[in-house]
Amino acid sequence: MLIPRTYHVSQIMSRMEQNPVVAIIGARQVGKTTITHEIATLIKMPIHRFDLEDPEDLARLNEPKLALKDLTGLVIIDEIQRKPELFPLLRVLADRDDKAAQFLILGSASPKLLKQSSESLAGRISYYSLNGFAVDEIDSKDELKLWIRGGFPRSYLASSEKESFAWRKDFIRTFLERDIPQLGFHIPAMTLHRFWNMLAHYHGQIWNGSELGRAFGMSHASVKRYVDLLTDALVVWQLKPWYQNMSKRQVKAPKVYIRDSGILHGLLGIESFLALEKHPKIGASWEGFVLSELLHQLKVEPSEAYFWATHAGAELDLLVFINGQPIGFEIKRTTSPKMTLSINNSLTDLKLDRLFVIHAGDHEFQIHEKVNAIPMASIQNLII
């Protein structure tokens, strides 16, 4: 079964019209290669594909200029991070007067990790972040399945919960044993697995490197390096704190989330909804799932999203700026959210005109003149 990713295809093709090089960035197995096949069926030009995990394709690029300079049409290079020395050549080819070829490159590492290699392409490259399936790409009745299994296509589309869970466990093992070393990091897979498992238990919490370091038996600097590594490898997300001049002491450390709810559940050993219902991380899991869906719906990059908290206990789960205006979101796994002191503090201290409470019920209603309660199932229809 193939789920068309129409929105992403249109966005990528729009960028291709404006830029000689477009980079699709996303975690391994998130569907980058599949989406290029969708694009290939829609364009009328020759297609040339290089998969840098294929030894034969890798050998073809031993002399990269010789291999690429005479190609016309669309050139697709998969897993570009395995051959960063291609970037300077791509700049030369992108600057040719005849614009004979367009380049679509796929990477399993963050733009930050690729930046040093790709900085020569400044002004010529557009980055597009691709995540797993979102609620608006699936049947609405399968929202629970998406939450449990996550958005990686092979996990979501597996024929059973058991098969999906097994795929995620295999993904975690392969990611640690093969993919991390390929990104140039040499940390024992068992050590990083223990850390990632521990991080899953801190999912949705404010980063405390000293506490994690003590629990893991390492220095604050070491655990920070590990969490940054997993962030750059696109499997962990650090939600930045928002702080401004005010009398209250504000939190200035990020919140840490496992990017995909299915991978989170794999790390925690949660195979089914029955198991999730009994797990103490169910609330944090739902919060991360809803946050991801909100950013997708609002078309906001994670780097442009914030949370806000004070040391006195006031907190706002998500703060974004739409057309320069601050808009707040609270996430409550309840069917009857109410006005709280924390929401009131957020409205006052952040001078919010609007705040939305995303909840687990079925109905939309107003709980304050500036606060609307919206069911998770309706966030596709959210109008800002």
Explain what this protein looks like in three dimensions.
The protein has helices at residues 6-18, 32-40, 55-60, 64-68, 86-94, 111-118, 143-149, 153-156, 161-182, 189-201, 209-216, 220-232, 261-268, 273-277, 282-298, 341-349; strands at residues 21-25, 47-51, 73-78, 101-107, 125-129, 205-206, 236-241, 255-258, 306-309, 315-322, 325-332, 354-359, 365-368, 371-375. It folds into 2 domains: 6-129, Rossmann fold (3-Layer(aba) Sandwich); 135-381, no CATH class. It has 16 helices and 14 strands. Helix content is 41%, strand content 20%. The chain has 384 residues and is of the alpha/beta class. The strands form 2 sheets. The chain has a 9-stranded mixed sheet with strand order 6-8-7-9-10-11-12-14-13. Strands 2-3-4-1-5 form a 5-stranded parallel sheet.
List the SSEs and their pairings.
Blueprint: H1 6-18, E1 21-25, H2 32-40, E2 47-51, H3 55-60, H4 64-68, E3 73-78, H5 86-94, E4 101-107, H6 111-118, E5 125-129, H7 143-149, H8 153-156, H9 161-182, H10 189-201, E6 205-206, H11 209-216, H12 220-232, E7 236-241, E8 255-258, H13 261-268, H14 273-277, H15 282-298, E9 306-309, E10 315-322, E11 325-332, H16 341-349, E12 354-359, E13 365-368, E14 371-375
Parallel strand pairs: 1-4, 1-5, 2-3, 3-4, 7-9, 11-12, 12-14
Antiparallel strand pairs: 6-8, 7-8, 9-10, 10-11, 13-14
Helix pairs in contact: 7-13, 9-10, 9-13, 10-12, 10-13, 11-12
